[in-house]
Amino acid sequence: MDVKEATTEEMCPHFPEPVPLKHPITSLRAALEKIDALLRSSVHTTKLPAISAIVVLNDSILWNGNFGKKNISDPSSPAPNEYTMYRIASLSKIFPTLMLYKLWEDGLVESLDDPLEKYMDNFAIKNPLGENSGTASSSVRTLSSRSPALTLRRMASQLSGLPRRLRSTNLLWSGNTEAALNLLQDDVLVADPGTKCHYSNVAFSLLANILAQKVTGSDFESWVSDNILERLNMEDTGFNLTPNVQRRMAVGVYSNGQPAPLYNLGWYRPAGQMFSTAADMAKLMMTLLGGYGGTLLQQDTLNTMLTPVFRCHSNYFSNATGTPWEINEQFNYDVVRKDGDLDGYAATLSLVPRLKLGLVVLMAGVRPADQDLVSQAYSYLIPAVESAFRDAQRTLRPPPNPAPYVGFFTYRNMTFYEIKVDSERVLIMQQFGPHVDTTVPAKYRTIQLDYLQDRVFRVVFKSPYPCKLKVNSASVSLEAQDRQLFNFYPFNKKGLFQLSTAVTVTEGDFQFSLESVKALGALMTGDDSSAEQALRLIEAKTAALCSHPALPEDFKPLCLRKDAGASLARLVFVATRYDSCEICEYAACTGC
């Protein structure tokens, strides 16, 4: 495959970088108009009288839509707005999960994979499906047991195996956690923990109450109010349906148009009791996407929380599950969402983390059965946002003083680079000299350097670019090089710099220093045969090579593998043509 073929077959980056956008953007406006029409046409005077929705992008509200009437029984009722309150049903499960991650980040929970009985030693439930059939509790599980643990993370990701509800209870059950534990002792796990997606309200109520009581010494609702709602300024979100809250709510209805009562869910409150507004849900979405001041969780923690945990079986209602998400793919992007449905109300909070995109839809009434409004909205929104990011001009930062970086550089007097300043004072690096591979188009031999901090830059290729190029017969991933960090080190008095970390060459699961690989090449090309002849004979020479006394010790484990010959052949190729590693060198890569 030549470079031209690679260009036409696959271009990168696969996923554009979310960057600030200059509005208006025609394609994005057209997508939002389609979403507006979709939700407006979904309002039904009997079974879905009110909808509020907000789209967030890059830490800001992109669009806000409100449709129908707050109270369909009142002819003078106004339309809802972003401050109209709705029950959010199972979106409430986001808050026990946030509690878990916050306690973990603060060191109060040692591990997300702590077993539940670490915090509640009297927890027990029958587990006839496990390898140690019997009661799933610490009293029968030993350290050598291979029976999956009922962990905190599994409780938050619908992988606990706990039943949907406690035996002989409904969502209005008003017992306490001690009574719930007593009921569970004579109940049965639906699935071995961690092996099957199974929806459980029990898991979230149990998780919330046990973490609150045993870790924080508080009650769950007070902890959420103090540590999440206040910090995010979510003043219109809570648990208690006071008269003032009810006056501000859109009136929920059943499919026949009859108003739905505002039940108190009792012990199941952590799993579905809460109310909120589209405006408050927008604050939560921006927080989960790493914006809104980063006031709740660190980015690494958020990344963990938004990562899929388990791929579900075909009969489950989502492709994968997360904490506490239902996750499906659209246009190769993970759409991370939480749906909630409770008498008279339906809600969905959804995120596309790669695009820093979020959509919340709150409904008073019954969710339409004939189409998924959120998936349909994303069918308009994702292509438009992706296109906007691809078309956006990257704003690169110049160094405060480019003078120390400008000049000519060489690597072992084999490859040569010039670093200069463009018209915007941004650094660009271009290879020149006798070892330039002319099969690589000139524009891919010039790299921009985005200034991050003193002597540290980020490599930037102009998009779009071929995902892979051939350099000296080796395949080089430009996508892997794009956005890598590039560090300038101080020179010594002679104008030289010795790498502090040796360059490594990766072969399968093994890594070897470039010096060892060169020594391997010397063994194979020490006779009068050419490098090409040596490569052709490598497999036949494998046994002799592996027993050679001069073979570096770090190759001995590789020699034990059946495919050692092929692996050694590839390494000898690198040794005899090690300029194929050059792109890794100047992009501060440790592997080739």
UniProtKB/TrEMBL annotation:
Domain Beta-lactamase-related as annotated: residue spans = 36-370
Q: Name one GO cellular component term.
A: extracellular region
- Taxonomic superkingdom: Eukaryota
Question: What does the UniProt keyword field contain?
Answer: Disulfide bond, Secreted, Signal
Q: Where is the signal peptide?
A: none
Q: Which InterPro entries match?
A: Beta-lactam-related, Beta-lactam/transpept-like, Beta-lactamase-like_AB/R, Guanylin, Guanylin_sf
Q: Where in the cell is it found?
A: Secreted
The similarity annotation says: Belongs to the beta-lactamase family. Belongs to the guanylin family.
Recorded protein name is Putative beta-lactamase-like 1
